[in-house]
Amino acid sequence: MPEKKGIQHQCSFCKRVIDVHDQYDMPIFDPNTGFAICKNCVREINRFLDEHDAAAAKSEKKAFADQLDEMLEKNKPHIIKQYLDEYIINQDHAKKVLSVAVYNHYKRMKYGYQNDDGTEIEKSNVIMLGPSGCGKTALLSHLSKLLDIPFAVTDASSLTEAGFVGADVEVAVRNLYYAADKDIEKAEHGIIYLDEFDKIARKSGANNSITADPGHEGVQQALLKMLEGSVVEFTARGQRKHPEAPTIKVDTRNVLFIVGGAFVGIEKIIAKRLQKASSIGFGAEVQGKDEQPKFDELIHQVRPEDLMEYGIIPEIIGRLPVICTLETLDEDALLRILTEPKNAPVKQYEKLLAMDGVKLVFEEDALRAVAQKAIERKTGARSLKGIIEDVMLDIMYEIPKSDAKRKVTITKECITAHEKPRVEEIA
After folding, report:
1. Where's the AAA+ ATPase domain (predicted)?
2. Who contacts 130 (Cβ-Cβ below 8 Å, separation ≥6)?
3. What pLDDT is attached to residue 207?
4. Which of the residues 110, 334, 383, 393 has the least number of beta carbons within 10 Å of its own beta carbon?
5. Residue 423 in 3-state DSSP?
6. Which residue spans of the chain are classified as CATH 1.10.8.60?
7. What is the dihedral of CA 115, 116, 117, 123, to 10 degrees?
8. Considering the chain, what is the average pLDDT of its residues?
């Protein structure tokens, strides 16, 4: 009996006649036209595509590496600090820390591209601590305008661990991907700032909690791999991951992470630790209430163990080696913030009224009253504009009624007693 012949098809590429035993012998076949591609040709095409992708990636990396020299030249620490000085008053220590961290971030990238000796320079991720309204977010927002690399801010308090309602930690990387105009290569060398980081501290401090803590310890655990450097996968539109949704992969090995928060109450933990150290033994001095160290003195003495006591897990602290502290802003500093920076609130209102042909003058006492009010509210610099806005509302409403040239003077009483500003007509 003659042997039964199998199905045979000719490959449209290599023209060989293939015995087809299953779909994998001829992965692509159109019965209507007879167009077919055999498995050997599919493998060959795949190899060519892989080689092409590798070559394209290599040329992209080389192009980026060539740009790094120019970036390093433009972003030396003293140049970054000079730029920040134009917008941010005081906080010299924090400006230096951030300037050096950013410059080293560029240098680390350059070293990785140009050296293949097995030595890896570790990332110097930064943790920023400082009271509300002292300039943490302002520092970072101005820094982002200066840099040539993508920069994304994410609110850590909105993050929850996977499976709970809320945003997964991948959101931070997705924000960076969009900040890089959907360029993965650029995103992989960017900076991520996690604001309100203290809000994800363990509620139970250094002690483990047995109850579910979706917005706290679980988020810290989820952030661990990302901080260290891992491939983060997320969906383009932000929907939950499922087999149908196309995903984007970003490697965070070269992403610099800066985290910041007010860490309310950490000064008590620092004071307690310092007290223990200084009040042991017979020669120890007993401090009176007036001799207690102030917040600014304490915050600069923060150590990793204080952050652990506050509720940040030890593994996270190990991945945030640079601690950057900011001081409280006193009356004089707030006074300077009102008038000195390029985008000072007083300058903004002067320009707004100048467009209506009006000269705006703030008396020294009035500005001091604004600063005192901000200190009373305990909101730092962020409430300065709001206080001036309250005073200026009626004037900005009345001014456009007439085209006459006028001079508006804001006195101390306008701030403290809600008196109307002085308006005079000028020639």
Report:
1. 122-345
2. 91, 94, 136, 260, 262, 299, 325, 326, 327
3. 46
4. 393
5. strand
6. 331-425
7. 70
8. 85
Q: What is the CATH number of domain 331-425?
A: 1.10.8.60
What is the enclosing helix (H) or strand (E) of 74?
Answer: helix 39-74
**Contact, 262 vs 131, CB < 8 A?**
yes
Taking residues 237-259, report their average pLDDT: 80
| Of 319, 76, 311, 54, residue with least CA distance to 201 | 311
Tokens of 164: 């709970």
Fold of 75-279+290-325: Rossmann fold (3.40.50)
pLDDT at 265 over 80: yes
> Over the stretch 128-174, which tens digit does the pLDDT of each residue have?
999 888 989 899 889 988 987 889 999 998 887 655 545 688 899 99
DSSP string, 40-64: HHHHHHHHHHHHHHHHHHHHHHHHH
Return the half-sphere exposure (C-beta side, CA atoms, 13 A cut-off) of residue 8: 7
Amino acid at 43: R
Q: What's the pLDDT at 166?
A: 52
List Cα–Cα distances, 11 to 8, 27, 42, in angstroms.
Answer: 10, 10, 11
| 303 in Cβ contact with 107 (< 8 Å) | no
Does an H or E element contain 259, and which? strand 256-261
Q: Give kind and range of the element (H or E) at residue 258.
A: strand 256-261
